[in-house]
Amino acid sequence: MKKGFFRKALLNTVLGTALAAVLGVAAGASAEAGTISLGHTTWVGYGPLYLARDLGYFKEQGLDLDLQVIEEASLYMAAAASGKLSGSASTIDEILKYRSPDFCFKAVVALDESYGGDGLVVSSDITSLAQLKGKTVALNEGSTSEFWLSYVLGQNGLSLKDIEISNMSADDAAAAFIARRVPAAVTWEPNLTNVRKGNHGKVLADSSSTPGVIVDVVALGCEVIEKQPKDVAALVNGLAKANAFIKANPEKAYEIMAKGVGGYLKDPKDFAESAKGVRFYDADTNKVYLGTAAAPGPIAELIKSADATWSTLGKTRMKVDYAAMVDPAFVTAQP
In what order do the strands lie in the sheet with 278-280? Predict the structure, then answer.
């Protein structure tokens, strides 16, 4: 791929009027010392970012964190590529597809892992993954849903080539499954609960069986990491304090995070219920999961697996590995 092609193509096709309207005043924020701006979708796992912000954990260290809800990965990654955002909160498998020689970013801290929050729903007559062979599965192509299913199939001697994919969003996939238009779908909460309660079929597998595979991280532009190390450290330290607060005061934490994240999670009860499907990553978990440059943690194998999956499907811009995708220095520097 020619140098510069990805950035130009991405910005020309995606970063237009709609993106500018979504970002608003955030444009240019990533260049300001003391400010970090992140794009992300609505997800329970991003609650600690709002908790640390609203409890003042970032502000007390001189950091102003600007969080922008953008419900499309290509949009917030385009904004990060152009410098309109400092980075993103997203799954590592999702964002590595956008890494290129011209678009450098690295994960500096892990936020959470899906632990039952994502899953595969099937009709009642399907009792094993082997029975999916030749059947249609509704899922969002190019997303974490496709990567996770590829991983699960691979663990059972199958591959994506063994099924027929019907491309649609995770919510639309759930709707199509409930309407019996497809025999299987990959989706997430609260759709999994709706399937279980509505007698629409069953959840054949969920992410509780694949810990450490669907992991959200904060990834920042390499220039941001280089020029704003104190701000990055403040971000990582603030998140560590937020996770300690969650353990000590879960009900209050859910209340604050629900208000911050908003959307379908604005009710603290709904947030608390969704939180059952994730595991938040505290400081100690981060140190183990990210590891060090000399001794990479489990995230290295996840990156290797995701790179192999997306490369096979022709969706990567360059070959990536731990060194290209992770900067563990801020996590390892914590006491």
Answer: 64-69, 35-40, 87-91, 215-221, 105-114, 278-280
